[in-house]
Amino acid sequence: MPRPFFVNPTLSCCGGDTFVYVPFVGYLRSEPVVWGGLAVVLLLLPALAWFVRAVVSTVRAPPKGTLARWSLLAAPAVLAVLLGQVVHEDTAIWQLSGQASHLFGQASYLFGQLCDGMDPNYVMNMAFAQTQAFKSINENARYIHKAGEIRDMFTQQEMSNVTALVHELSKHWQHRPNLAGPLPFFTLGAASYLDHVLEMYAPNAIRVNTRLMARLPWFYERLRAALEQELGEKAEFHSPYPEDWPEGRALPGFHLFLSNSVYEMPVARVHYDGQYKSLPFPEGCEFEQTISFTLPVDLPRAPEGAAQPGLYTFHIPEPARADLVEGETVKRFEGEYQDEYREVQRGSFHRVHHPYKVGTMVIHAGYMVHQISPSRWASGNDARITLQGHGVYHPPSKTWLLYW
Ligand SMILES: O=C(O)CCC(=O)C(=O)O
Ligand SMILES: [Fe+2]
């Protein structure tokens, strides 16, 4: 739970949004429907307590008289009809306002993510489908079986400088309500998986990526050079629209999560990376050779003894001890899955927790099923800021094209 001390009570960002810190919950986007929802919850709790007390006292001392008895018998039916009106999709109270209905949609999306993230059968199915669909890729791709690290690429001081710049550019953060509802999840820089058409990607890149490159040239150059060295071949920032926008470059950008109790649960999407489908790439690219990389820039300080923020990766065969890097832990789960003949089978998968370290980059093939692991917040001011990028191999030029 994010502790409330020393916290900025409000935060302005994203060219006009305000986020307010709610003690023990964390930051929430300030809008009437969010506060209305919170007020309803706060009012409903005493009403529910009153109702439970009334039921208990009625059961203990049933009322006398015919009318009172009939009323008691009718009460559950009346209550059921009222509740039905509240939740039924045609008459639901959240439909009273388009905004409330939109918020409800976002909340139910998040709840769906949480259910998937905690459901071993869902993860088992994903892991099985991954091993089937990407059989040939699994054989060819680098980093497929594990997440590798490029250690201590940046010092703590360098990462603090980048963190300060990310905060300085807060008016260019983009809140992503489609994924997060009113929760404090943002991006800084154009992201192909969210801005996947030229009309959205290019303006965002022109406005933000150019600023990032102008302010952090040393950072992007170190990143590019380190990837080049790690991959053993040339690496450059991809030019996705060479005709319409010749000077434009796709840069890795930032994911930002501010403190919120919801992020202490596995609400992030269980997925593998297919972002290359969202941007144009030159003829001859080999989409079986992809990489994904994440550089933790600022991390919440998890309380002593609690799991550190990081990444879960899911594997059907138990990962070989020799493939695990320092700090990784493995947990085995059982679940049901549909095999290639659509028969339901039982099987097991392994979840590796890879704790992140500020300044140490994690790199994997992207085709491995993975999920952002929960973050614990020792202070409401903590943030999880990571640089996120991907790469596709282009054999004709023997070059890795880097993008986000
Ligand atoms: O932020 C992270 O730890 C990983 C994010 C991720 O998996 C992605 O952006 O595809
Ligand atoms: Fe991913």
Structure description:
There is one protein chain. This protein is an alpha+beta fold and 404 residues long. The protein is 35% helix and 25% strand. Strands 4, 5, 6, 7, 8, 9, 13, 15 and 16 form a nine-stranded mixed β-sheet that branches. It has a four-stranded antiparallel β-sheet with strand order 11-12-10-14. A three-stranded antiparallel β-sheet has the order 1-2-3, with no helix packed on it. It is globular and about 90 Å long. The structure holds 2-oxoglutaric acid and fe (ii) ion. 2-oxoglutaric acid (AKG) binds at residues 255, 273, 292, 294, 311, 370, 372, 386, 388.
Low-confidence stretches: none
Q: Strand count, sense and closure of the main sheet?
A: 9 strands, mixed
Distance between the termini: 31 Å
What portion of residues is helical?
25-40%
How would you state the average pLDDT, rounded?
89
Give the CATH architecture of the largest domain.
Sandwich
DSSP strand count:
16
Q: Enumerate how many helices there are, as a single number.
A: 9
Please tell me what the overall shape is.
globular
What is the radius of gyration computed over CA atoms, rounded to a whole number of angstroms? 25 Å
Order of helices and strands: EEEHHHHHEHEHEHHEEEEEEEEEE
- Total individual domains: 2
Alpha-beta content class: alpha+beta
Q: Briefly, what CATH class of the largest domain?
A: Mainly Beta
Q: Can you tell me the CATH topology of the largest domain?
A: Jelly Rolls
Strand content: 15-25%
Ligand roster: 2-oxoglutaric acid, fe (ii) ion
